[in-house]
Specification:
alpha/beta; Rossmann fold; five-stranded parallel sheet; four-stranded mixed sheet; globular; binds adenosine-5'-triphosphate; binds ligand LQESDW3C
């Protein structure tokens, strides 16, 4: 599907810092909107329904799956997460740029539907730092951290399917890299469209 807006997908193992990076990017970039996913996970800490996620129970989530209301969904760390069509379709069609913070399974589903989507994978600088970030965040118990560290090995192996890989060691450096990817995609997409429209006019197909 081709739309006037750009679509960016940011994935990472839990704790690598993707939400922090996307939040910082959104503060700098007024043309970008983040999609709010649905999840069956319980809210943690200060999370609010409709802000970080739409929190729904499993029957409600499964009903949305059955009604084909998601562009993608996946089971991650024992919970279900999905990107609703309603959340992003209108924005993309209106020419807005949208960023999805989702796991690698969802990212690959999105690439099937939107081949022009830009897939960005965030890596932590080391396994040790990843674990420390999960602990320092102070939101998850030891059992949850253990599951997420275990799943991180498989997730990181999927980075090769992504268009860009950014190492989030120094936060400001990673943020600069992310901004550069978004900016260069905008320039590329705008140039492609100019070329297309010139060719269409030249051939009298417009
Ligand atoms: N470059 C960095 N250096 C040090 N700490 C960082 C860095 N980036 C993020 N953090 C911290 O690491 C913790 C995890 O970050 P964040 O919540 O953004 O991860 P995440 O990848 O979005 O995880 P999840 O998928 O579980 O939501 C947070 O406490 C955040 O402040
Ligand atoms: N496939 C999807 N994955 C999603 C979506 N929203 C979030 N996520 C990913 O789930 C894990 C865990 O998130 P957490 O908030 O419980 O720490 C993380 O990798 C998210 O990126 C979604 O809509 N689809």
């Amino acid at each position: 599907m081709e739309t006037p807006g750009n679509l960016f997908v940011v994935a990472a193992p839990s704790g690598a810092g993707k939400s922090s990076l996307v939040k910082a990017l959104l503060e700098l970039d007024s043309h970008l909107r983040v999609s709010v996913s649905h999840t069956t996970r319980a809210p943690r800490g200060q999370e609010q329904n409709g802000r970080e996620y739409h929190f729904v129970d499993r029957p409600a989530f499964d009903a949305m799956v059955a009604a084909n209301e998601f562009f993608e969904w996946a089971e991650v760390h024992g919970n279900r997460y999905g990107t609703s069509r309603i959340g992003i379709e209108a924005r993309l069609m209106a020419g807005e740029d949208v960023v999805l913070e989702i796991d690698w399974q969802g990212a690959l589903q999105i690439k099937q539907l939107f081949p022009y989507a830009v897939l960005i994978f965030i890596l932590p600088p080391s396994w040790q730092e990843l674990e420390q970030r999960l602990r320092r965040r102070g939101e998850d118990g030891e059992d949850v951290i253990a599951v997420r560290m275990q799943n991180a090995r498989e997730e990181v192996a999927q980075a090769r399917h992504f268009d860009y890989v950014i190492i989030n060691g120094l936060f400001e450096t990673a943020l600069f890299d992310l901004k550069t990817v978004v900016h260069s995609q905008r320039l590329k997409y705008a140039a492609q469209r100019r070329v297309k429209s010139t060719v269409f006019h030249a051939l009298d197909l417009a």
